Amino acid sequence: AQSVTQPDIHITVSEGASLELRCNYSYGATPYLFWYVQSPGQGLQLLLKYFSGDTLVQGIKGFEAEFKRSQSSFNLRKPSVHWSDAAEYFCAVDNAGNMLTFGGGTRLMVKP
Amino acid sequence: GAGVSQSPRYKVAKRGQDVALRCDPISGHVSLFWYQQALGQGPEFLTYFQNEAQLDKSGLPSDRFFAERPEGSVSTLKIQRTQQEDSAVYLCASSLADVTGDHEQFFGPGTRLTVL
């Protein structure tokens, strides 16, 4: 069965610092890959997605992610974090077009 | 256009009660998904519809959970004889996806169910 691992449960960064959230997946083929953000009491908002092609994908709010097949990773990055980025971030994979498997999430806190 | 909507947003039920959670997908979206998100965890897949056909219900945790989408649009997730472990946020998502289409899922705000 496929699985998604987000090794960091909590991350705290200072405002203006760079950010990298890790995501590793376990699946035989290249799945479709997603990063979602969830603010308290809100649904999930898509930040970016990878289906094929260029392995560096750009998303909304200044986020980007890089697919590395050799490492089965899809890490999310942002060069300069804003206080409004504080939220829960979920990595997800879709291997068959009919369900998403999510990681456990990483809670991002931003220090002023 | 409107996104995915869910109602009610909050539901408190006494243990043993039946509840029904509604999802209105984005108009024209073929696929509809239900997920359960326990506190502090990532969402977990419950079931999936393509139009009115329920193609996968492997994630439903027990036979107390039942979902339907009779006309291929609105969907209802029903939980019978609720238990405390059913307390969670129930998320609905819709997608244009068919077998070869775009796989992006659009999520509703969720229904937070609390079973006392």
What keyword list fits this structure?
heterodimer; A: 112 residues; mainly beta; six-stranded mixed beta sheet; four-stranded antiparallel beta sheet; 12 strands; B: 116 residues; seven-stranded mixed beta sheet; 47% strand; globular
Tell me the fraction of residues in β-strands of chain A, as a range: over 45%
Most extensive chain-chain interface: A-B, 24 and 29 residues
Tally of extended strands of chain B? 11
| Mean pLDDT over the full residue set of chain B | 93
Distance between the termini of chain A: 41 Å
Rg calc of chain A:
13 Å
Low-confidence stretches of chain B: none
Gap from first CA to last CA of chain B: 37 Å
Give me the strand/helix succession of chain B: EEEEEEEEEEE
- Largest beta sheet of chain B, briefly? 7 strands, mixed
**Which range best describes the helical content of chain A: under 10%, 10-25%, 25-40%, 40-55%, 55-70% or over 70%?**
under 10%
Net shape of chain B: globular
Q: Tally the helices of chain B: what do you get? A: 0
The helix/strand class of chain A is mainly beta
| SS-derived structural category of chain B | mainly beta
State Rg of chain B.
13 Å
Q: Biggest sheet of chain A: strands, sense, closure?
A: 6 strands, mixed
Uncertain ranges of chain A: none
